[in-house]
Amino acid sequence: MFIAKDGTTISQSGPLISCSDGTSYNLYGSMLSGPGGVVDTNVSNISEVIGIVLGLHGGKRF
Fold it and tell me: Could you name the domain of life of the organism this protein comes from (predicted)?
């Protein structure tokens, strides 16, 4: 589980990333889809997906 700078809690279960703001993202092969459609088409692994989603929420809170 991660906390983004905007206060959103982000958790991962398999290829699904869920956010406490109600949004979710799915990794299908190398394509990341989200609430607005395709977010990225060249994702190499789930760690990269988490980084992308954290970036969409302002980055990781340390």
Answer: Bacteria
